[in-house]
Amino acid sequence: MVDKNEVKGGAKEVGGKLKEAAGRATGNRDMEVEGQADQVEGKTQKNYGKVKDAVKDQTH
């Protein structure tokens, strides 16, 4: 079963990639950096969900 944090984190990671690309395309460095930060945050949340799910599987 997929944890909701995996889904939300994955979505944030993809959104960050899009934001980074849009910032790069328009020359908006702030948007580009925000996109990179969103990717890191999303990846962290996704990994948290994976660990949480693995622990849940081990305890049941």
Helicity level, as a percent range? over 70%
* Major sheet attributes: none
Number of strands: 0
Oligomer: single chain
User: Nearest-angstrom radius of gyration?
Assistant: 14 Å
SSE pattern, N- to C-terminal:
HH
| Overall residue-averaged pLDDT value | 95
> Into which percentage range does the β-strand content fall?
under 5%
Catalogue the unreliable spans. Answer: none
Structural features, described:
Helix 1 (4-26) packs antiparallel against helix 2 (29-59). This protein has 60 residues and is mainly alpha-helical. The chain has helices spanning 4-26, 29-59. It is rod-shaped. The model has no long low-confidence stretch (mean pLDDT 95).
Compact summary:
With 60 residues, the protein is mainly alpha-helical. It is 90% helix and 0% strand. The chain has helices spanning 4-26, 29-59.
